Amino acid sequence: MPIQIIQVPYDSGHKNLRMGNGPAHIVNRGLKKRSASEIHIDEVTVEDHFPLEVGTAFQLARVLAARVREAVDQSHFPLVLAGNCMSSLGALTGLGEPVGVVWLDAHGDLNTPESTLSGFLDGMALATITGRCWSNLVSTFSGFEPVPDRQVILLGARDFDPAEQMLLDGSAITLIKTPSLRQAGVDATLGPALERICKLTPRIYLHIDLDVLDVSAARVNHFSSAGGLTVAELLQVVRFVGSRSSLAAAAITAYDPAFDEGDRALHAALEVIALLGELLGHPRTT
Hints:
Elements: E1 3-8, E2 10-11, E3 14-15, H1 22-31, E4 39-43, H2 53-73, E5 77-82, H3 87-95, E6 100-104, H4 125-129, H5 135-138, E7 152-155, H6 162-169, E8 174-176, H7 178-184, H8 186-200, E9 203-209, H9 231-244, E10 246-253, H10 264-279
Parallel strand pairs: 1-4, 1-5, 5-10, 6-7, 6-9, 7-8, 9-10
Antiparallel strand pairs: 2-3
């Protein structure tokens, strides 16, 4: 199956700034040389002369939903490269049918406008797609249904606001922490939860915020922190999910090239994309 790369080069409503620079950097530094029969490249933009973090983010999600829907209709695999995690709303709307979510991130992204301490919209992405906030705006997305908690795995998260931690503790979301993954192995920690989800829906949206990586493996953005995955562990998780489920779409988000010393985060992203290609039937070339 060909991969449809869909770039969303925005961070907090601003185009080509901070993490919004990540999608083009990944494409220009590693993907344009790939065969056109394997990878198609597209970009999402909106005409907005006065960007608003909330308003522009939801505008982008609407356009992205249409692009994802087109990719699926053409039997292409949607791979979203985005500055922010709120792109997940557009990806899931475009998929249409119910899916499970495997969410890799240093953060919970489970804040709501009432719980957040920073006001950063992107910290509400998982809360939004599970129906916890922005209900009026989300209701305007035709075909989107909130993902039930029992169909969500949050892996590698380690940085939570206090109220956000309470929301997670009171939820049915499966949290897999890095030490447990490392001690018991991917099969024992991720396997049972993924199997439960696949009994409800075999199709999985794989969301990879690159700051799930430990800062010693790659400094991905200014949110990078210790306690995360190695690149090898990230690839192991991607391979496990891809081989034990039916991948419906994937996303790589939150990469700011300005923080990437030695292109380590870039190389990790390209390794993930190459592995996805392998899982989808393409020879591994990077």
